[in-house]
Specification:
Order of helices and strands: HHH
Strand content: under 5%
Oligomer: single chain
Shape: globular
Amino acid sequence: MATIMPEGEAIRKAVKWISDKLLDDPNKSVQKLINEAVMRFDLSPKDTVFLTDFYSKGKKDVPE
């Protein structure tokens, strides 16, 4: 079975940080937050793809 969250403390911190920012302001650009998290937490390209996929899938699951 695939894991939902990849291993690594930095990616976990990035997901929490982005999620907290979105709770504070749901209208914030997710892509800008991802870009900032990549720099802030020194994430790899693989982590960047994970974050992009994670947050784009989340939007699809939310009814409009």
